[in-house]
């Protein structure tokens, strides 16, 4: 904890300072916008950007992760609370904070139980399909505030401001960085400045609103933002804890997946080591802090963390600086924050989520592995048709289904001797000779509950294909572990083969596997023997008959 | 379909006939008892034993499976309907039939989608813990009918009859088969006759009830059983479909797991092949048939199927015969069925589920793999404290967690050359020599989303441990597949190594893996080369520097 601070080098300070300023400027419009996505007052998004990143800096393990509001998590928050309270009400805000507590508690618990390996739960196609589906849902949800009325209607002044903001942001997104580069700005600096376009557009729109009193023309504004730091909020609504349990679990899960995928991308770029169990604790503590601030669930966001990284962040001090700046913004007069036009904020959200609409994963998967492409499509369509929460469940089921399916199809080869050598190879690929009555199989997978049945089926298939078999030798060179289910399956296979007059032998059992097997009764009950090498097994069994060699 | 009938050999008939009679005699008390467990009138258990096994005989793939009511599935049925309707009401019966339809539809759908591999979903310890927990719940639920009143109270005549029946059944269970064997009965026949003890005890108790008019003394009886075959029942209660969806899904899942585990045990004994996708269709169709009969979810039961097998069943004709016999029993006068005393039926249930209380799996797991033993305990305690439905979910989560955990820890070895040879081996286990600047890693697992992160972490760890590395060679001999997630991870690793001036090379890539990789852009972008053998890679890379050998 705080190792980065103990070993802080002075040289890291300029980078951290610059990144802190940039991220704070990015956070103001983003935090307010994502609070709106969650159905909350905009100031909640600022609260979510102060204490949570500070707490994450204490407990997390990533150096450049920027923790705070994030579009998909806000969408899930809004969807989870919608059935319980109307958006904008006090109850809605209380429930959002409670949801952050539930998600935080789930993450902390997983961290204490060292369940960091769960970050491997989603395949990349499933995660990508989920992200794209969620982005479309978020973008669609912002069309109404963008136009000032539900389409196909629109409110002309709002729509003009919204669409103008959108056009400016799209232009800045596509052309600002190249333009700056052509003007001689360093590429990294150009990219970072381009990322500040939302802040500039929001400020400009706010200026226009103030100058022409557009609020009076019916353009919706954020409204008064209470000055001062967030109040400690421990208000609870006891009736709703049960209803928040499942969404809190799912949100905690998604918070972890999104944050880990962002942190891993950056850690690889910096050659850094990420500790997934510490990430769980860091994110869990950040969400508890968000609850205390009266905010809503937060996570590490790839887009913001990438800016933090590009702007020069070396350590979590960058996040501390940006949190302090945001706190200052709330302590200073906040009158100008009340004049932010919602159509412009909607435009910033739409442009932000359009950046998450990447189809590369789908394209690559389509060429490389049609099954993975299908998983992408099913997850995306699941989010669009069933909602974001059901989309997570669809993703889990698909990922787990894929996992079991893959695990349940281990490779098994029939081995034969390469004539004149001690080598045994797959008879399908090498000119290897088998001998009558002796069947040698190499199992190319660890044996565990997910594949014991198919291993068993395959063995029975081969026995049917080699009807005169008297000895079955399993080459165990590729087997690094045998779980309890597989131990029982081996014992049952042994008993069944014994009853049919076939000896079961093992060869090339790895040391650690053999040590474990000695704790079981299998070696004693084995109908055959355990051989050091396949060649020794073949030589011995070819010269004896099973009746003469009972063990 | 019906292949067994087309190739029916006359010699199989006596065995099938005998087994059909035995199973029918076993079915009568068992079916009625398990209907009571599900909160249904006893006759529903008989209905569930006629059409479902007939339909399973048409579609299933197991030769000796006996499909019908089963204790755990009945417990789940009762638990699922309890919140929706009171036991014994007409609505309860309609919902039970609908639940069979939902479970059947789920199974059929899984069969059509060829999801038979899901039978590998539960590890054996989890399945065993679930079975033991459920058995205890069922046994405890029968204490009240056994004693005629909720303990600590009891109704003296009921308790006397119930405890006497229990004592007789426990005696028969432990001592009848050995006694018969000592009297010269063949061991298999002795075992089969012993299994008929429940029928004999029930008949005797019914005789006692009739002779002494015990119904008048307050002993609860089954009550009038409507004569005749089940009426086609298509009554629906539209409001409840939604509420039945989740339990129907869980019941379908458990039906499949229980039936497959029974069928696999017997198929192995007979050296037969089981087709899991056909089992899904057979069980699905049987449950739809159960709905049509106005019954409740059914499955293949190990205890009954084992009796069927031991009594000589050779083909599904045995099940057809037992179904016909049960239908006859309903067509003939059914007055005697009304006098079956419930305390005796409760005793048969308790003795039946005590047979499922096996602790061998726990004991073996405790000695062999403490983690598996823990999974057993957590699942069992989950069923006891949270209920049978939550127990299934706990089991799924535990099994999946174990699966990901195992999959996420692939074995990776640093290889070195055995001096004077072409062989490369794990430096931890062999006196193998590494050379400066060249790091060779062997990845002993298929690469997929579940392990890419830990492979990546391990590679970075090794690079940190070998700071002078200029070339990283991945030996891919043990890698049989690379999914889309792993493809992206390799591409990102390649880019990251390139940026650090390290060449990434592959060696001994299997043919099918290489064919797939050619569909991607990885071979073109690779910072290093793809070598046929590790020795060739080492020879080439030791004689060149990375700058001189860009590809």
TrEMBL record, chains A, B:
Any one biological process term the GO annotation gives: transmembrane transport
CDD domains found in the cross-reference section: STAS_SulP_like_sulfate_transporter (cd07042)
InterPro entries recorded: SLC26A/SulP_dom (IPR011547), SLC26A/SulP_fam (IPR001902), STAS_dom (IPR002645), STAS_dom_sf (IPR036513)
GO annotations of cellular component type: membrane
Topology of this chain in the membrane: Multi-pass membrane protein
Cellular compartments annotated: Membrane
Regions that span the bilayer: 12-28, 34-59, 66-87, 93-113, 125-143, 155-176, 196-220, 240-259, 280-300, 306-329, 336-354, 374-399
One matching Pfam family: STAS
UniProt keyword annotations, A-Z: Membrane, Transmembrane, Transmembrane helix
Domain STAS: 428-527
Highest taxon in the source lineage: Bacteria
Name assigned to this protein: Sulfate permease
């Amino acid at each position: 904890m705080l190792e980065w601070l103990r070993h802080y080098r002075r040289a890291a300070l300029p980078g951290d300072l610059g990144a802190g300023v940039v991220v704070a400027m990015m956070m103001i419009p983003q935090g307010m916008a994502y609070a709106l996505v969650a159905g909350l007052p905009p100031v909640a998004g600022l609260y979510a950007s102060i204490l949570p990143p500070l707490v994450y800096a204490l407990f997390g393990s990533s150096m450049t992760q920027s923790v705070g509001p994030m579009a998909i998590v806000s969408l899930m928050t809004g969807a989870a609370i919608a059935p319980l309270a109307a958006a904008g009400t006090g109850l809605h805000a209380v429930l959002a904070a409670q949801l952050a507590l539930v998600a935080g508690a789930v993450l902390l618990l997983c961290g204490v139980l060292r369940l960091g390996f769960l970050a491997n739960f989603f395949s990349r196609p499933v995660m990508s399909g989920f992200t794209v589906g969620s982005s479309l849902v978020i973008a669609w949800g912002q069309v109404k505030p963008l136009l000032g009325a539900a389409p196909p209607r629109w409110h002309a002044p709002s729509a003009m401001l919204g669409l103008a903001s959108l056009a400016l942001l799209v232009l800045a997104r596509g052309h600002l960085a190249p333009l700056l580069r052509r003007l001689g700005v360093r590429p990294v600096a150009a990219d970072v400045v381009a990322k500040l376009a939302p802040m500039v557009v929001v400020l400009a729109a706010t200026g226009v609103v103030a100058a022409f009193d557009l609020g009076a023309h019916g353009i919706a504004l954020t409204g008064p933002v209470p000055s001062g730091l967030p109040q400690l909020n421990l208000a609870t609504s006891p009736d709703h804890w049960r209803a928040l349990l499942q969404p809190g679990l799912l949100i905690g899960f998604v918070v972890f997946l999104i944050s880990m995928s962002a942190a891993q991308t950056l850690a690889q770029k910096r050659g850094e080591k990420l500790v997934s169990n510490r990430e769980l604790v860091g994110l869990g503590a950040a969400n508890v802090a968000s609850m205390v601030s009266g905010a809503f669930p937060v996570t590490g966001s790839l887009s913001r963390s990438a800016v933090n990284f590009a702007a020069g962040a070396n350590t979590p001090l960058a996040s501390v600086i940006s949190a302090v700046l945001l706190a200052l913004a709330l302590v200073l007069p906040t009158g100008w924050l009340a004049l932010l036009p919602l159509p412009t904020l909607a435009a910033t959200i739409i442009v932000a989520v359009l950046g998450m609409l990447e189809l590369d994963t789908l394209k690559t998967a389509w060429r490389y592995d049609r099954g993975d492409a299908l998983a992408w499509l099913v997850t995306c369509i699941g989010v669009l048709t069933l909602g974001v929460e059901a989309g997570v469940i669809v993703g889990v089921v698909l990922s787990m289904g894929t996992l079991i399916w893959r695990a349940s199809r281990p490779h098994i080869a029939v081995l034969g001797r390469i004539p004149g050598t001690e080598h045994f190879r797959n008879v399908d690929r090498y000119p290897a000779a088998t001998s009558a009555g002796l069947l040698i199989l190499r199992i190319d997978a660890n044996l565990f509950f997910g594949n014991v049945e198919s291993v068993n089926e395959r063995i029975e298939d081969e026995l049917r294909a080699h009807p005169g078999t008297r000895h079955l030798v399993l080459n165990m060179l590729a087997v690094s572990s045998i779980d309890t289910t597989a131990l029982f399956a081996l014992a049952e296979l042994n008993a069944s083969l014994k009853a049919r007059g076939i000896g079961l032998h093992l060869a090339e059992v790895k040391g650690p596997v053999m040590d474990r097997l000695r704790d079981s009764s299998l070696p004693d009950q084995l109908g055959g023997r355990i051989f050091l090498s396949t060649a020794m097994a073949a030589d011995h069994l070819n010269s004896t008959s099973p009746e003469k060699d009972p063990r």
